Amino acid sequence: MRFVSNVLTSLWIGGLLALGYVAAPAAFSVLQAHDPAGGRALAGELFGVTLIRAQHYLLGAGVLQAVLLNVRAALGPRPREFKVQLAVLLLMIGLTGYAAFVIAPKIDAIRIAANGPIAALADGNPAKAEFGRLHGWSNGLMALTLIGAMSLMWFDRRE
Q: Whole domain around residue 124: which residue ranges?
C-alpha cells in the first residue's frame, strides 16, 4: 500500500510538473509560431482541456491515496504524522477540485463570452482582468498542490 501511495504521489508531482513546465509552454510556443493570430487562443483551449482531464485523474488518485493512508493506519503500524499527511492530502484534493470545478468553468465562460482571443481584449476590459485573476489563482492552486505532494513524499521518506 505504501508503494502504491508513493507511485500515486510521484504521478501527481510528475503530472503537475509536466503540465506546467512542458505541456503548456510547448503548446503555446508551437501553436503561436504556427498561427500568430489565433495560436495563443487555441493553445489556451488545448491546455485547458488537458488540465481538466489531468485534474480528474489526479482527483481519483488523491481519493485512492486517502483510502490507502486510512487502511495503512487501520492495519498498522500507523504512519508517522498520519493526521498531518491526511490533512495535506485532503487539502490537495480540495484545491484540485476547486480549480477543476469552480475556476476552470469560470475561465471557460469568459473565453466563450469574449468571442475571440482574450489577448485581443482591451487592457482595461473587466473580462480580461477577471481572466488574468482566475488564471493566477489556478496557477497558485497548482503550485500549492505540488508543494503538498512533495511534502507527502518528505513525510514518507521519514517513515
A: 2-157
